[in-house]
Structure formats: C-alpha cells, structure tokens
Amino acid sequence: MQRPRCPFCTTDVAADERKTACDRCMSWHHSECWSEHGKCAACGHEATSEALRAPPAPRAAAAPRNAAARSGRGLAYGLGMLVGLAFRYRVVVILVVGLLVVLYGILGILPPP
User: Fold this and answer.
1) Model confidence, pTM
2) How many CB atoms lie within 10 A of CB 54?
3) How confident is the model at residue 43 (pLDDT cuts 50, 70, 90)?
4) In contact, 40 and 22? CB cutoff 8 Å
5) Is 31 within 8 Å of 49 (Cβ atoms)?
6) What strand order describes the sheet that includes 28-30?
7) Interatomic CA distance for residues 4 and 54, integer angstroms
8) Which pairs count as long-range contacts for 28-36, CB under 8 Å and 24+ apart, including other chains?
9) Nearest Cα residue to 98 out of 84, 106, 113, 82
10) 3-state secondary structure of 84
11) How far apart are CA 77 and CA 69, in angstroms?
C-alpha cells in the first residue's frame, strides 16, 4: 500500500507520525511542514484537521457462498427479473411461443383438438 506523500517536503507520511490534513483537498502533511509553511502546500487552504494516525483502511467483507448471496438477492429477485425480461421482450417471447406451437402442430406432437 502506498503511503500519502507530504506536498511540502515530498516525503512519505508514516501512519504513526503526527500529521495534518487540509480541510479542502485532504492532502496529508507532516505537522512540522504545515507549521513551517502555514497553509496547505497543495491547494493553499489554511484550515486543518490534525490527526495522530491515518484514517482506518476499509474492511474486506467475507466472500459470499453463491451468486444470489453475492448479489444480495434471492430466488424471488431472479424470477422477477425473468418476468421483467419476458415483458420487455414480449414480442420476441410471443414469436418464440408461436413458433413452438406451430412446430409442435406440424410435427404432430400436440393432440388434435
């Protein structure tokens, strides 16, 4: 993981060092560099947020077991999507169903009326 770089002295800002963040652009500075320069070396803003450590890194979530769990949706959602797609492409669905009925009729699979 790459450490933030102080825009005033252009060296890395370690996690355990005293540091200051610009309120406007969130650039991390060494507290001594900020004190020496008096403002943000990146954007020139003068408001600060002092911190003893960097913000916590985002936690990695546990990997879900299956596709429905990964998407956060279950069987009902999948069926709803299927119905939604059928409705969206209703002309295609009607043509496919009609074609199947005609083929079954020609091949004699369907019983006579």
Assistant:
1) 0.42
2) 16
3) confident
4) yes
5) no
6) 28-30, 19-22, 48-51
7) 9
8) 28/4, 28/54, 30/6, 33/6, 33/8, 33/9, 34/8, 36/8
9) 106
10) helix
11) 11
